[in-house]
Amino acid sequence: MVYAVCDNQSMATATRGRTSFGKDTGLQARMLLTMFLLGLVYVVFIGVLFAAGAGAGLIVVVAVVLLLIQLFASDKLAMATMGVKEVSPAQEPELHGIVERLCVQADLPKPRVCVMETSMPNAFAMGRSQKSTTVCATRGILDMLSPPELEGVMAHELTHVINRDVMVMTLASFFATLASMILQFAFFFGGGFGNREEERDIEIVVLVSMLVYAISFLLLRALSRYREFAADRGSAVLTGRPSALASALIKISGTIERVPRDDLRAAEGMSAFFIVPARAKKSLLNLFADHPPLEQRLAALQRLEAQLQGAA
Q1: FRET partner for 226 with CA separation of 20 to 30 A, picked from 125, 149, 197, 275?
Q2: What pLDDT does 121 receive?
Q3: Considering its fold, how many domains does the chain have in total?
Q4: Residue 49 sits in which domain range?
Q5: Residues forming the active site
Q6: Percentages helix, strand, coil for the chain, rounded to the nearest 5?
Q7: More confidently predicted of 98 and 30
């Protein structure tokens, strides 16, 4: 599934000015479609498991427990692993000031403000709702960006909060996680079945699990790419300075290429949530990346800059 980079409706919405800033309707439609398709695939998946003789009780318990962990604990576990710490206004006055101003403009409750002590320049937002959101900047990005650039980055992250796409990405990844878990379980225990019919059922479960994982992977990547374009647009409209975000993206991308590979690997699990992906080098696998290419993001921001200046 291929999503358009920037449809005309979204661009028209962006050029109305900061007073009309709100949810990206294009992203909302895509999130709804993604969840519907993943839900449909998931129903078929569960049906196949039942047909293969898997225990209904076990499936339900595992699915519910995994979903609850994903919804309520995945962000906390991820941030604890990455060493993210909440900071007070006294500790980081500039960062808190920027976030407060943007929240007033966007009519958002102020989120928890955190800093990740790493030289890798990046930022992200996590949380299942607007009232339980955390925005985080790394020490590297705080030291590197100018105030307007940092404001553009924080506005990008707060747009994710407004669009609620972090929660949708968390829910959507649940399907792929469950399929992967069952696939591993089937491979690990599949050899213990001597009955021909049971072996055939296991093979069916493995094939369907692989299909579910592949479909979930592609849908998640397509949605993830579009949500980054939507957050870039939201930042540009909220701040009125698309060029500031473009400058920040150029600085971050250029610096990440020089970050030690060990540091990038340590942050790779959070890559989908970062404003710029934590990857050591470009490869063919980038065709399935969770972020659009930097060149496309810059081109979209340049078009927005022209449109905002024309509307002024």
Answers
A1: 149
A2: 94
A3: 1
A4: 22-311
A5: 157
A6: 70, 5, 20
A7: 98
